[in-house]
């Protein structure tokens, strides 16, 4: 059972509210709620946690060495695109194949210990765990795993890869909504404001996450703020000194970061 399913009682459950099943479900919901310190602090956000598919479910390989769990949580979220094809296969199978291909590329070609990013959002709006333990640490609301998705930011940010190439197209609506839900959940868990959502190009010399998705980030911050029930404050729009310095120093470069899957790795 998914966490989100706990918040969608069936008509049958409503008709017979004190079944053993509903009592057990309620107990689990209470236990899950107790693990969310920010929820207990009375924040406005009360949406169900998104259904995030863990590494085991999509068939991840073991990491080549233990994933490092950091004592700190993230300071921000960084949005990427995978620069893979804008497929119209929106299936879970495709999402799983993508996750495995990314892991294979990151481990075998890049030499990393595991998938680089913490989470992946497929074109079909499936949300998957990337690097092992990212999901378990997200649920703590206090720690994160060290990642490999953005140079200089891998110990202080959560990286989200979005399947597709968003240089001239925007993501499908369902994928965008899944991204917003995921960002809101991450912000809620770690106590981050929605203004702390950035694009990869704000920190590294890369075109990632594509001009169109990058242009959507102010909207994404507002949509995440709305999900959190917080005021729409967006200091990141007004002041982005790191991004400005990078762009001044580098112009608008082609990516020199080999974060993208080579052609042919993903059928
Ligand atoms: Zn990127």
From TrEMBL:
Q: Which PROSITE patterns does the record match to this protein?
A: TAT
Q: Which Pfam families match?
A: Amidase_2 (PF01510)
Ranges where the N-acetylmuramoyl-L-alanine amidase domain occurs: 62-210
Q: Where's the Peptidoglycan recognition protein family domain? A: 50-204
Organism's domain of life?
A: Bacteria
Q: In which family does this protein belong, per the annotation?
A: Belongs to the N-acetylmuramoyl-L-alanine amidase 2 family.
Q: Protein name, please?
A: N-acetylmuramoyl-L-alanine amidase
């Amino acid at each position: 059972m998914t966490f989100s399913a706990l918040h969608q009682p069936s008509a049958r459950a409503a008709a017979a509210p004190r079944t053993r099943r509903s009592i057990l479900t309620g107990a689990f919901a209470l236990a899950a709620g107790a693990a969310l310190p920010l929820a207990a602090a009375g924040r406005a956000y009360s949406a169900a946690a998104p259904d995030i598919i863990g590494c085991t479910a999509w068939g991840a390989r073991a990491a080549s060495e233990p994933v490092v769990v950091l004592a700190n949580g993230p300071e921000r979220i960084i949005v990427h695109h995978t620069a893979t094809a804008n497929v119209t296969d929106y299936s879970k199978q495709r999402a799983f194949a993508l996750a495995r291909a990314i892991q294979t590329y990151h481990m075998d070609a890049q030499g990393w210990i595991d998938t680089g990013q913490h989470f992946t959002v497929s074109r079909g709006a499936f949300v998957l765990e990337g690097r092992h333990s990212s999901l378990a640490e997200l649920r703590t609301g206090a720690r994160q795993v060290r990642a490999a998705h953005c140079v200089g930011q891998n110990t202080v940010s959560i990286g989200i890869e979005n399947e597709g190439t968003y240089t001239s197209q925007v993501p499908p609506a369902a994928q965008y909504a899944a991204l917003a839900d995921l960002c809101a959940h991450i912000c809620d868990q770690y106590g981050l404001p929605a203004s702390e959502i950035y694009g990869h190009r704000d920190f590294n010399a890369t075109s990632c996450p594509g001009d169109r998705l990058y242009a959507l980030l102010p909207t994404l911050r507002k949509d995440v703020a709305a999900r959190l029930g917080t005021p729409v404050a967006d200091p990141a729009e007004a002041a982005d000194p790191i991004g400005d310095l990078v762009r001044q120093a580098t112009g608008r470069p082609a990516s020199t970061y080999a974060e993208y899957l080579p052609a042919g790795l993903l059928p």
